[in-house]
Amino acid sequence: MKGKVYLVGAGPGDYKLLTLKGLECIQQADVIVYDRLANVHYLKEAKPDCEIIYVGKASSDHTLPQDDINRVIVEKAREGKIVTRLKGGDPYVFGRGGEEGEALKSEGIEFEVVPGITSAIGGLCYAGIPITHRDHASSFHVVTGHLRADDKENPEINWNALANIGGTLVFLMGVANLKKISDCLMREGKDGKTPVALISWATRFNQRVITSTLDEVYDTAIKEKVKPPTLIVVGSVVGLRESLNFFENKPLFGKNVMVTRSRTQSSSLVEKVMDLGGNPIEVPTIRIEKIKDNVELEQAIKEIQDYTYLILSSQNAVDIFFDQLDELGFDARALAHLKVCAIGSATAKAVKDRGIKADLIPSKFVSEALCEELRDVLKPEDRVLIPRAKNARDVLVETLGQICSVHEVHTYESVMDTSMKEDVTELLTNHQVDYVTFASSATVKNFVKMLGTDYLEKLNQTKVISIGPVTSKTLQDLKIEVYKEAKEASIDALVEAMIGGH
Ligand code: SAH
Fold this sequence. Notes:
Mean pLDDT: 91
Largest sheet: 5 strands, parallel
Number of strands: 20
Bound molecules: S-adenosyl-L-homocysteine
Shape: globular
Low-confidence stretches: none
Strand order of the largest sheet: 3-2-4-1-5
Distance between the termini: 56 Å
Radius of gyration: 29 Å
């Protein structure tokens, strides 16, 4: 087994500024090594059993020294794993990607480098600043601001050349040396009135841009408490921001949107919030818990030859059933004699992924429709197996039970998910939430149960958006004020209600 390492540019921050190749590397990785500039949302794309290693924290540029990072990567690759090393921006732009590549080469480990959108260009773009422009700059220069103590001993930076070349200057890692940077440029002849922009957390919902001039920028930065990660842009292209700033004009730019959801709701709302420039905070309220050491399920599988029908009504039901089948040493062939019914297209797909085409997928995705369709075909001697959730509705078992033998096996249950409780209370207490969205009554109830009624007042200080009248009624019954209600029960209408509220 031979491992391989991908050094992947994760882009400047916006979730969608990642290459297709980069995404593929994330999805295939056995191990992901990432630091603080890579968007953590990407980790959701990883395989469920992917090992995730964080190597950087907010207060210092590198938590793990570079040698240790290299060692971790090398070790994992030696174990035969696919390692994806996610690096903010482009791996070769002050990312020490070159050093990591050299270390891999010297260890004889295969690697590939996937370029990314560097903050030095993409970050400026989202701040409305084109790095070149025919009327302003015909070259650009990306410079490290991480300077040695005594500049005179630092021949890497030719201040005189930089001050006089006329192109756009972009300094990375330069906040701590801002005074020195501006002084050196002016000393070598750069006009003190040259426009400067300081762009912090570029391309993210919390992007902040401060503009000034070379002679005043240091004082401005102190006054505005500018902190890393920040790009320093020097040049007249900064002025174009007034016409080219599209990102900060997005309807949810800078807004924190708490998205409460039950397990079935897709993440399309989360994606929409990001597309509109906002920060989605996902709060799951329900979690699936598999019933452990399920003797009844094991028994049913061992006696699978005695059944004639298998009904699966959710993706979870499919996964748990087939995992158990596998654990007991069987595979899909053990089900060859059965008629398999799947309720819902997602369930049918999950069954197909396990190598079986469902014999019956009711036209409407509810139990009643399946009963209707099975009523005519089931015979008294049939035996139906239904592995499913503990708290599922009775209709299937009752109706079909009138025709033949039906065996319901509980395989999982939905329980309240309290994993985000602390985060949610803290965010609400610190007024760090602009909107809270609810897409069902059940979610409202679970959310309030999780939070406790003490926090209702805090919830009322945010803007609560409801998907429709039923959800709104549940909210109002709990004395939660509804700020806006969607015109129809869809995610698009929910977003519309939120945006329309500005
Ligand atoms: N390889 C990265 C740069 C790594 S050096 C790239 O290509 O973008 C780290 C520096 O990059 C930070 O100190 C900051 O100056 C800059 N930087 C990276 N991402 C940034 C962002 N989203 N906003 C502002 N500056 C950023």
